[in-house]
Amino acid sequence: MMESATRSARNILTGLHEVMASKNHAQGKLNHVVNIIGEALTSEVCSIYLLRDGALELFATRGLNEAAVHVTRLGLGEGLVGTIAENVETLNLDEAAAHPNFRYVPETGEERFHSFAGVPIVRSERAVGVLAVQHVEPRKYEEVEIEALQTVAMVLSELIANADLIDDPEVGSGIETGTIVLTGLPLVKGAAAGVAIFHQPNVRIEHTVAEDIEAERQRVYSAFDKMREQIDRMASQIDFGTGGEHEEVIATYKMFAYDEGWSRRINEAIDSGLTAEAAIERVQQRTRMRMRQIDDPLLADRMHDLEDLSNRLLRIVSGQMSTAAQLGLKKDSILIARNLGPAELLEYDKRRLRGVILEEGSLTAHVVIVARAMGIPVLGRVRGIRHKVRDGEMILLNADEKSVIVRPSASTEESFQHQLVDRQKKKARYAAMRDDPAVTKDGLPITLMINAGLRDDMSALATTGAEGVGLFRTEFQFLISATLPQRERQQRFYRDVLDAAGDKPVIFRTLDIGGDKALPYLKDETSEEENPALGWRALRLSLDHAGLMKTQARALIEASAGRTLNVMFPMVSEPWEFDAAKAIFEGQIEFLGKLKKQLPSKVRYGAMLEVPALAETLDVLLPKIQFLSIGTNDLTQFLFAADRADPRLAERYDWLSPAILRFIKRVVDATEGYGVDVAVCGEMGGRSLEALALIGLGIRRLSITPAAVGPVKAMIRSAEHAGIQAKMTELLASPPQNLRSALSVWATAQGIETG
Ligand code: PEP
Ligand code: MG
């Protein structure tokens, strides 16, 4: 075994401790450090790059050409060193030149070296430098070696900040001053204006090397006690809604807070000679790295719970208690963070927190579930926002439009504020229309339902006045929980959903997982797909996993005891798939009947039409089903062969294109005479102009996002059915080049409210 692997982190730390305590000037200390590390890891090269004037400058090296020191400079993102700094991520490569970002720097004389490992030196969550080692032989550095490098990087961060060697990350150098527009992924819809506030006024780790290990241990113990107390208090003080997913989210979070493994790992890090703060950070870094390697979006979501807790513990132990939440929001604020845990969000004053912008984030993240319950808009995946905004600058967030305007001009801000007022007015108008029927001016009723996936969503039935849930995406419960929900848990969940719906119907769609919505417990079988959207997903997977489907069927049947069960199958491509899925349900009904369990009073079956092939066999399918729901999200991607998740294609194909509209019209015509309810449940139906077109094609039922119910109802109540039907016939017979604009002009002339 290599000396580096056996040499303890403690020994390196002791060496560093001496360097830090020495009277050497900073440059001398850095030179000393590269030697200690190079020796400890038996690396031919050890180098330190620091961020100065916006570039990474080689500050010290053992093994590279001395003449390159203070000469070699790499931009952020340039070469391996620049990549590490830009992504704040460790690289460990046995063949450096094989990495796509490798850049050969001639003056360093590094051509002899094959393997390369580098870790970022982090200050205030940004990389202020890079510590790198290189080796002549191609080999991967071992985990203990990488961990040693990370520990050293932490100590270096302390050293260089004290010595004033680097750009101060707090100063926000390089941030522009003009208006910029950034885009992201809407996680919770809505719009808001406010001043930027950074979630994490960074906990500065002042000392990394422990003087007294026992004292450090005691500090961590008491911090743990305090943290658990805080969390228990917070959980008991939640003041919005009961009986929703946010409660489960908080329960999971509490479980992490009491995790013994976590406190043990921190203790071990203290044993190696780190201070309490450094040990917490060390363990967190390691977890982060492991999670990245696993590359599982669900685990990544859980990761944010851990980050949240770790930051909390760090703040307590360091006495730097001030997140923006604890300092108190002074005015309307837009919170900016890389990511947030659910409890971190809960700490903010709801009256002043207007919106959240995250650099990461996903629809199933716990923080998003809590934000939804709190009614706060969230835009996720806004790349690099933390480096493009300063604290206190004005931000206009429009999650509906996927955009953020930073430092708007006075006139932009003014018009945005007007839009917000307009939105409020419209909202009030829609709320007042809640109990009005969705009927056209010439008396045609349209059934408006909502799409849902969480118990928290069910309150929208009351607030919108929608007639039921036309699409309940059951996979959501699976996606947000860490383990496969067992039958009892599923059943309880479905029953709660039905209870929340009262007399209104709920159409449960069976699991639509697989492909890009892979679950960790089914992952092995689903991970290697080239075209996940076309892959082994939804009903295809469920039919192969009959156990999973049987369990869900039983849970749904039991939950619907004495009531109507509406069940719908996703991605039906051929009628036999519907037969097979229905047979599983019928089998469960028979089984439960034999057990003398109370059964649903009625079971209605439906299919989603998302795969174009199904349209060719509707005559076979229609006699078997009670309802058909057109899923325009998937249908569009299959019809145009255009990935719905690819942002480059997002705007290319229009829902108001003759191909889609004619296709839907053909389906509607084909259903004539079968007594089958036909609905559209894709996003298309939630856009007023699109909904108008659909009604013109003969669609009478729409299941849409709750926020769209008001606008779509207003559109329906201002339209005449006969007119739109004639207009659509005309437009489809000889489509104009821009059907959208032709329809829009016509609708405006008719006085139809299309948004
Ligand atoms: C659809 O594909 O249109 C649909 C409603 O299902 P999902 O968006 O859940 O795939
Ligand atoms: Mg779909």
How does this model look, in words?
This protein is α/β, with parallel strands linked by helices and 755 residues long. The protein folds into 4 domains: 1-162, GAF domain (Beta-Lactamase, 2-Layer Sandwich), CATH 3.30.450; 180-201 and 325-425, Glucose Oxidase, domain 1 (3-Layer(bba) Sandwich); 213-318, PtsI, HPr-binding domain (Enzyme I, Chain A, domain 2), CATH 1.10.274; 443-522 and 535-750, TIM Barrel (Alpha-Beta Barrel), CATH 3.20.20.60. 45% of the residues lie in helices and 16% in strands. It contains 28 helices and 22 strands. It has an 8-stranded mixed β-sheet. Strands 15-16-17-18-19-20-21-22 form an 8-stranded parallel barrel, surrounded by 4 helices. It is elongated. The N and C termini lie far apart (69 Å). 45% of the residues are buried. Mean pLDDT is 88; it is low at 1-6. Residues 471, 473, 512, 610, 631-634, 681-682 line the site of phosphoenolpyruvate. Phosphoenolpyruvate (PEP) binds next to strand 16 and helix 23.
